[in-house]
Design a protein that fits this description.
Length: 64
């Protein structure tokens, strides 16, 4: 779902499921989401992922 301000990922994933998909532990996913939230790139709302700032998310992805 897309609005003028954000992208809502409609599928619910647990941190455990996401970790399994990318080959890392749940705790690493939790830490990564915390960093993404602190940067204002994403928000977790009702167990859904909302991309609030796509440019910030891209910048964080390229920083690695």
């Amino acid at each position: 779902m897309v609005s003028s301000e954000s992208y809502r990922i409609p599928t619910h994933y647990t941190h455990e499921q996401l970790g399994s998909m990318i080959g890392c532990k749940r705790v690493a996913v939790t830490r990564a989401f915390r960093k993404l939230e602190d940067a204002g790139a994403v928000e977790l709302e009702d167990r859904r992922i909302i991309v609030k700032d796509i440019d910030a998310l891209k910048d964080l992805a390229q920083a690695r």
